[in-house]
């Protein structure tokens, strides 16, 4: 058996940002247009008027201040409210592969490796721009990697589930060097016209290089162990993909293909699951929570992370013990905990231990205990 280690991570950050204020101006303009267009039904009481959104609510409910997106103009156009992404020809790289490449290049550079030295690519994300051929195989080709590649989707937990799959293959020797890539175009999946959730997501791509510890060129983080768990719930879901349902009037409904959630239920049900999962994983590993220098948590909501930090550590986390990046990136689905790890792991000394944890739809939760060497 070999010992797997994370030897590099990389983040691709899209060039365009949307602040809460910009988002709310666009949403409110859309709501005003909608209310004007449906004034008669609203007056007759057959249709509900759309309320305005507010930056204060967004920050207070989520901790989010801004998000990055692949296209800002389409999202902020009150007559459109979703990204305008260029249609690509069949011969061009897809947008997910393109986003992934920059993240992969950074992860490889951090480890002193070339794409040709990789023999497994897992594209692990919440949404794939197509079902096949796998986005991962396209990334494999663009990197000049050998071996094999496949896509996997465990929603917001995709990164940790991908890391576990890759680490286990490295342990047994069936692969030697793996890239787990998380390109998330959440902006195409979010309903920007729904006041309850229009502020939640942002776009990004992350990559994690995993290889044998004894082959690491520049140190890294040994993967001591990982644990994944799932429990079915439809409280975070999209209802239809290619089997798109039609409404009674015969029209297809785009809303049915997008992100939906019962936010309050998610809070109540996911938090106990995540806390028990982390504490159980630590106990199995023979570690006290106090042995962790840092938690790199999924980045969905600040209140959620504060709660998890308190429950796991048994006290309020000290500054830096549980860093958030969601104020800048919003919820980037599977990529959030890896952005936090990428940004806040450079100060670890050999022997120090931390835990990466992601959770979300499924429900799903994945945790990875890592030790610096
Ligand atoms: N602007 C202003 N007010 C808003 C609003 C907005 N954009 N959206 C909702 N509100 C209002 C609601 O109408 C409601 O009003 P009411 O009390 O008069 O009915 C009130 O604010 C509270 O809404 P609620 O949806 O209960 O807010 P919340 O505190 O639960 O926060 C979320 C909403 C989505 C931020 C929160 O539920 C959450 O983060 N849930 C889990 C998210 C998550 O991790 N999901 C997984 C995705 S991977």
From TrEMBL:
InterPro entries: ACP_syn_III_C, ACP_syn_III_N, Thiolase-like
UniProt xrefs under Pfam families: ACP_syn_III, ACP_syn_III_C
A GO BP annotation: secondary metabolite biosynthetic process
Location of the Beta-ketoacyl-[acyl-carrier-protein] synthase III N-terminal domain: 150-223
Tagged with keyword Acyltransferase: yes
Keywords: Acyltransferase, Transferase
Keyword Transferase: yes
Coiled-coil residues: none
Residue stretches making up the Beta-ketoacyl-[acyl-carrier-protein] synthase III C-terminal domain: 282-371
Domain of life: Bacteria
Molecular-function GO terms, alphabetical: 3-oxoacyl-[acyl-carrier-protein] synthase activity
NCBIfam families associated with the record: PRK07515.1 (NF005703)
Protein name from the UniProt record: Beta-ketoacyl-ACP synthase III
């Amino acid at each position: 058996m070999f010992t797997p280690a994370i030897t590099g991570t990389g983040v691709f950050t899209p060039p365009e940002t949307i602040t809460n204020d910009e988002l709310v101006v666009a949403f409110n303009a859309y709501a005003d247009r909608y209310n004007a267009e449906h004034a008669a039904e609203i007056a007759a009481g057959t249709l509900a008027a759309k309320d305005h959104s507010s930056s204060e609510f967004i920050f207070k409910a989520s901790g989010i201040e801004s998000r990055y997106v692949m296209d800002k103009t389409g999202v902020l156009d009150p007559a459109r409210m979703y990204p305008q992404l260029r249609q690509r020809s069949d011969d061009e790289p897809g947008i997910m592969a393109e986003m992934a490449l920059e993240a992969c290049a950074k992860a490889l550079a951090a480890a002193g490796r070339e794409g040709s030295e990789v023999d497994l690519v897992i594209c692990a994300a919440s949404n794939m721009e197509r079902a096949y051929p796998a986005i991962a195989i396209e990334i494999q080709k663009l990197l000049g990697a050998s071996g094999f590649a496949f896509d996997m989707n465990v929603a917001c937990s995709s990164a940790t589930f991908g890391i576990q799959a890759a680490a286990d293959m490295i342990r047994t020797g069936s692969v030697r060097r793996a890239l787990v890539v998380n390109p998330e175009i959440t902006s195409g999946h979010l309903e920007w016209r729904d006041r309850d959730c229009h502020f939640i997501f942002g776009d990004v791509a992350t990559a994690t290089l995993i290889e044998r510890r004894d082959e690491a060129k520049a140190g890294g983080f040994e993967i001591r162990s990982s644990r994944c768990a799932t429990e079915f719930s439809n409280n975070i879901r999209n209802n239809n993909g290619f089997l798109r349902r039609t409404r009674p009037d015969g029209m297809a409904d785009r809303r049915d293909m997008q992100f939906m959630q019962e936010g309050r239920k998610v809070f109540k049900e996911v938090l106990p699951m995540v806390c028990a999962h982390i504490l159980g994983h630590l106990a199995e590993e023979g570690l006290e929570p106090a042995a962790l220098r840092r938690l790199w948590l999924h980045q969905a909501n600040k209140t959620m992370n504060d709660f998890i930090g308190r429950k796991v550590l048994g006290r309020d986390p000290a500054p830096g013990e549980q860093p958030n990046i969601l104020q800048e990136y919003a919820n980037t689905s599977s990529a959030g905990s890896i952005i936090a790890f990428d940004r806040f792991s450079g100060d670890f000394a050999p022997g120090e231990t931390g835990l990466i944890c992601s959770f979300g739809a499924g429900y799903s939760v994945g945790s990875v205990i890592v030790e610096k060497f």
